[in-house]
Amino acid sequence: MTQRPRCPACLRPPRACICRWTAAVPHRTEVLILQHPLEVHQAKGTARLLHLCLPHSRVVVGEQFDATVLQHWLTAPFTAHHAPEPPRQTLLLYPESAHDAALGLATPPPLNPALLQTPERLRLVVLDGTWRKSRKMLHLNPLLQQLPRLPLRALPVSRYRVRIARQPHQLSTLEATCAALAQLEGSADAFAPLLSALDGFVAQQAAWQGR
Questions:
Q1: Residue 165: what pLDDT?
Q2: Which of 65-79, 145-159, 176-190 has the lowest mean pLDDT?
Q3: What's the DSSP call for residue 59?
Q4: Three-state DSSP class for residue 123
Q5: What pLDDT, on a 0 to 100 scale, did the predictor assign at position 207?
Q6: What is the per-residue pLDDT for 195?
Q7: What are phi and psi of 154, to 5 degrees?
Q8: Is residue 179 part of a domain?
Q9: Residue 168 has pLDDT above 60, yes or no
Q10: Is residue 14 part of a domain?
Q11: What's the whole-number mean pLDDT along residues 27-32?
Q12: Is 98 inside any structural domain?
């Protein structure tokens, strides 16, 4: 069967293209998005929109990664530089839970507050998937369990009304990353364009659902 054409940027069919909502948002903290394979063509997913809005971001698709390959994604520079750069400090955007041990997850190392003083030296790792999928990704990849976790403070109310969340505090991938970057870089206003992009995307998805 002939595969229907897709936009090379957002990977969606032309009539569902979301590129009109994208806007390059300056940021100092690098973002590595580890995307579950079942999310790649999920129409309601926000990871691709997030990536297209963040110049210093990378998307890698997979559920269980080879340890050597994952170590490369966690530590290697995103781009080639003429002068060597010191390695970035890597943080995992994932809440700590009292149930981690019962789920067979290692206790993450404590987050050194001093790291948060230099957001330009950080790389934030984001798991894109449902809670069940992201928890499985964490379980299958011990290297991720060894990363200090970034807890979000003062969670915003979700604007993502096109996909049902099981808990009120659960946010879309874009919203959670936006909140984390605002927290790390000390400016919510700087990342307002991300939320504006989400609003346009959500309106488009809601219109499709209405049809």
A1: 57
A2: 145-159
A3: E
A4: strand
A5: 84
A6: 94
A7: 50, 65
A8: yes
A9: no
A10: no
A11: 97
A12: no
Q: Is the pLDDT of residue 2 over 60?
A: no
3-state SS track over 71-117: HHHHHCCCCCCCCCCCCCEEEEECCCCCCCCCCCCCCCCCCCHHHHH
136-149 confidence digits (pLDDT tens): 999 999 999 999 99
Contact residues for 192 (Cβ-Cβ < 8 A; gap 6+): none
Per the listing, tokens 């995103």 go with 78
Q: Is 186 inside any structural domain?
A: yes
- Tokens (6 digits) for 184: 């790390």
- E strand intervals along the chain: 30-35, 57-61, 89-93, 122-128
Domain count, the chain: 1
Q: Which domain holds residue 204?
A: 26-73+118-210
Entry field: residues in the chain: 211
State the Cα–Cα distance between residues 161 and 176, nearest whole angstrom: 14
- List the one residue out of 158, 203, 180, 177 whose CA is nearest residue 21: 203
Residue 61 in 3-state DSSP? strand
